[in-house]
Design goal:
single chain, globular, 6-stranded mixed beta sheet, alpha/beta, D-Maltodextrin-Binding Protein, domain 2, about 45% helix
Length: about 450
Amino acid sequence: MTFASRLPGSTRRARRTLVTLAALSGALLVTACSPSAGGSSGSTGAGGDGNVDLTVWSWRVEDEAAYKKIFAAYEKSHPNVHVDFKAFKATEYNKILATGLAGSNGPDVPQVRSYGQLQTTVASKSLLPLDGKVDLSGWDENIVASAKGKEDGKTYSVPFARQTVQMFYNQGLFEENGLKAPTTWAEFIAANDKLQAAGVTPIAVGAKDDWTLPIVHEVVAGARFGGKAFRDAVVSGKKTFTDPDWVASVKVVGDLEKYMPKNVTGVAQTDAQTLFSAEKAAMIPGGSFDLSVFQKANPNMKIGIFQVPPAPGSPSGSPATTAGWADGNFGVSAKSKHPAEATELVKWMTSKEFGQMVGEEIKQISAVPGVEPSDPLLKQMSDNYKNSGSPYLLLTDFRYGTPSGGELMGKGLQELLLGSKDASAVSQDLDTGVKTWFKPSA
């Protein structure tokens, strides 16, 4: 239902028509400098009847229908508010958002990036601090950190979901080959060997897209470098990325290359996903955000997940681990014409009602404590993170400068798989690169 359709009576319809004509006339003057020509942009302002239009921008084009359903639920409990959700192409979003927030036609509530990628937006003073207005106490510290300014420690946004990485597998292919999800490294390697002998690609990897490779590393070797314990040590300066356990974890990726598609550095991530969805590959390392992609691509495939067991030599007591982080957040624009109403909407995003709908409609793990996913695989991912989780450290802690840890690691792992660098060189390059800007916490 649109805002206009909720105004009763012919008088209001006539009044609304005049207001709309005036707005359209003004819009013709600003279209050329609008960051989203062809679509509505900023908030329209409240009429004399107290009704308010709020705009929400996002890079999640694929979630547009889901978000419109979610915000329709909000409108039912806030009948004076209409939420207009606009999604833009992810690769163009950062520029579009920066332009919108700097001008007068930006969103009231922007979806913003997390951790290091949030800092530019914070530094531009484009967001209102939310301390004292939203309550994130009791939330996972790793998730809350994604929403804060690095310099001032203030909260500028609310995380909308948690992401995790794990190994997806085709249960049907495993069963056909007499296999179960491995619980030891020996079982994992044996499964790879058996699948390969049966003519099935064991692990689908798209190494042409270097951003995927740090995920592969976390999935197959998180336990080998020590998970959260290593993260705490490297952030505090007690260890570096030249530590023997880290180097050994990088080597694990190279050792598993023989189970990946041939010429893996020429395989795109979309090709790897197709291999898995077409049931030509038995496993694929991926994020919780990939689940709905796989389910839609092949609804008949029975998908399972598992944590890759610790590789030989893993630090004592280092269990199989699930790395996690907050992918993005929602904030309040400093230029919103309706800061109180926009803040109220973002505050609602800390509620279990919103969190449950994120799980149901968007197929994401909610960031809101106490919200349990109804999808059994999402619940398993969430439980794994709760029981043996660790921060995805190259994203959560090493994105605050240039070159970022993820960029260095992605390119380094490509070179490892091409045979031009060994694990020690890749680790040294990572360590040298982040030290140009990273300062230990202690």
